[in-house]
Amino acid sequence: MANGLVEACSAFGTNFYRKGGKLHWCGVNLEDLARRYGTPLYAYASDEVRRRIKVLKNAFGAIPRFHLMYAVKANNNVEILKLIASEGVRFDCANLNEAALAMKVGAPYMLSGIFYTREELEAALRLKATVNLDDPAAWDLVKELLSEGAPRPKRLFIRLNPGWGRGAFSLILGGEGSKFGMKPDDARIVAREIGDMGIEFGVHAMVGSGIFDPSHFIRLASFLLDFALDVGAVAIDFGGGFGVPYKPDETELDVRAIGDGIASLPNIEKVEVYAEPGRYLLASAGVLLCKICSIKRTDPPIVGLDGGMNVLMRPALYKAYHEIVNVTRPMSDLIPTTIVGRICESTDEFGRDRPFPSASEAGDVVAILHAGAYGYVMSSNYNSTAKPAEVLIEEGSVRLIRPREEPMRDIVKSSP
Ligand code: LLP
């Protein structure tokens, strides 16, 4: 197999390069980083997050009343949230815990949960949150709470299931049988009632994640716009779902085509337009560093890392692809290799037949790329493992933004 590490990495953008024979990412020597903070370690680059925000703002610049939100579920580290909020981006929150994080960093937010409880809706109304109603039952609860004297919301959203969905793996959130959103006919009734009460509202749909086809987003926005104009909504939110290339042969989604397509929809200026991506802003802004514990010299060899599905669950859960690089010896010849974690599950596997240096040894540092979104947030304590640390690279300097869990303190001693 070819010895082409730098080429392979450059396929992911200009953030990777070799200096003094050592692999650097966003100005930092990854091996040094792993040795200094230990592994497994999530490292994020603030410049990359800011750059991705700028790309989206430019791409959607032609839409008259566009606002960018960020889906907190993709990465909820408070320092990352502060950074994103400082760019004027609002937040999309899946529940009141995420809303609390938004409030902590002072960002305006929308609460976009499903199957709300009465208690949650009561709290949300008290907080004057913009609630995205996922079900007519949620509206019934809101009406009940209002009749009992709860504060009137300034604005609500109605989440629609437009009848179709799309997305990578199983990440389809719309269409027949989906648990998300309400049928357009139900939404029409809810919209009429909200309007009759003089409450301003928008319409929302999020039908899938990891989508690379610009026409999907334009179609969805067009559907929402027609619906909004019909029922008197003041805003549309076409969700997140923007695909990100994880594999070397995948290309960037043409976000400009989405922006221009939506900007040219007739009457688009009559509504505010929101998008709420998570993955797009964070995936390429994070790497996961692990260490090789040992290698089974089978054919193919099996490399065992100190972090597995407990740290990054996406490969085990979706068979998602993440590029894997041996940071310690990037120059060696590459042979097909199986790369796994140490969890007692056969699905605890990062990849098979991956080109990996034949000279790899225990103690080598390994980088798993595109781990900034849906990485730490989906990590677990499975097999009683401790969660990793997170660091942020800002202008070439590094700071710890979440300490590593300590097994004796956080796992063993916290038991009653
Ligand atoms: N808004 C809502 C209401 C959502 O449910 C989601 C994601 C987003 C926005 C952001 O979607 P994004 O832009 O990140 O595609 N765990 C999976 C992703 C699940 C996404 C679920 N909802 C993964 O690791 O790929």
Please tag this protein with its features.
416 residues; alpha/beta; 9-stranded mixed sheet; 13 helices; disordered N terminus; binds ligand LLP
Number of strand segments: 20
Give the structural class. Answer: alpha/beta
| Anisotropy-based shape | globular
Number of helices: 13
Q: Approximately how much beta-strand content do the residues carry?
A: 15-25%
Describe the structure in your own words.
With 416 residues, the chain is an alpha/beta fold. It has 13 helices and 20 strands. The protein has helices spanning 5-10, 30-37, 46-59, 78-86, 96-104, 118-126, 136-147, 184-196, 214-231, 255-263, 279-282, 314-318, 407-412, and strands at 16-19, 22-25, 28-29, 41-45, 66-71, 90-93, 109-111, 130-133, 155-159, 200-204, 235-237, 272-275, 286-296, 302-305, 324-326, 334-340, 349-357, 365-368, 389-394, 397-402. Strands 4, 13, 14, 15, 16, 17, 18, 19 and 20 form a nine-stranded mixed β-sheet that branches. The protein has an eight-stranded parallel β-barrel with strand order 5-6-7-8-9-10-11-12, surrounded by five helices. The protein has a three-stranded antiparallel β-sheet with strand order 1-2-3. Strand 9 (155-159), helix 8 and strand 10 (200-204) form a beta-alpha-beta unit. Helix 3 (46-59) runs parallel beside helix 10 (255-263), helix 6 (118-126) packs across helix 7 (136-147) and helix 9 packs parallel to helix 10 (255-263). The chain is globular and about 70 Å long. It starts with a helix and ends with a helix. Mean pLDDT is 94; it is low at 1-8.
